[in-house]
Structure formats: C-alpha cells, structure tokens
C-alpha cells in the first residue's frame, strides 16, 4: 500500500469526519454513514465514475467490523482512486484522491437556520401569553412540561376514601383564605 508523505492532513480529515455528528465517537474509526459523507463532501463521488453505490461497496469490502479504521480508510481510498481518476496511473490517482480529502471537514449543507424576525419573537414571547397558555410556563419563560399541561393530583390521603393530600379541615381553612 502506497502511503503518501503528507498523510497527516489525511488523518486530520479522517478524524474530523469520524467524530462528526456522533457524541460517543472516539475518532479512531469511521462508520459507513460518515464514510459516505466524507466521499460526498470531498467530491470523491462525482456521479459519473464514482457513485454512492460504489462508495458503499468499497466500504463493505475493506471493513473488518461495522466500522473502518484509518488503515482500512487508506485501503478504501486506494480502491476508489483508479475509478475516480481513470486516465492517471495508480500512484497519481492515489495522490489526486488524497488531495481531494486532505484537510477537509464536514459541511452543514441543508441545516435549517433559525428565523429571527419580529413576528417569530412576538409569537414565542411567553410573557405575552394569557389564559390557560400562561399556566404552562414559569416566570422565566421556560415550559413546565407535563405539570403545565395537566392537573396533577396527589393520591395520598388522610382518610382512605379522601384521596387528596391533607385533612378536610385544612382544605376548608385553605378555601376560606
């Protein structure tokens, strides 16, 4: 396997894509989803000579488990290089594919941006809510969750048949206040 002298930027790209979108990722292995994203974002997939299917097939070939290591990642690039750069020699194709991937990082294409307009601010300002909607939020504007949506009754009682908390006398005294 030919290892380029500038394998460091390649490893940086591998590490960035391996941890992208996965909080539990260690950065030492790449999932199939991350591999496909890497190939798409780095323009290894061109839609003509290399497609998403080709990328998936190469991933299945080189993987030893459900993920690929950095060494297997290099093998996968080595397999895709001649297919992506057809007119070049094997070494030149490998160098070209390394140049596509080196130093790259995941892009956030298609991520929804938050709309900041006066209308949205007015509709989401909980201090202006009235009636039953106002009861769903505390003083800071945070939602109360289930407590704000439903009347929760404690089923602990002083008397067996009386299932609300406290005694009848204390209920009557609280009502009189």
TrEMBL record:
A single GO molecular function term of this UniProt record: tubulin binding
Q: Which UniProt keywords apply?
A: Cytoplasm, Cytoskeleton, Microtubule
Where found, per UniProt? Cytoplasm, Cytoskeleton
Q: Which Pfam families match?
A: p25-alpha (PF05517)
GO annotation terms (biological process): microtubule bundle formation; microtubule polymerization; positive regulation of protein polymerization
Residues of the region (Disordered) are: 125-155
> Basic and acidic residues bias: where?
132-154
GO CC terms in record: microtubule
The cross-references to InterPro entries, in alphabetical order and at most eight, read:
EF-hand-dom_pair, TPP/p25
Q: Which family does it belong to?
A: Belongs to the TPPP family.
Tell me what this protein is called: Tubulin polymerization-promoting protein family member 3
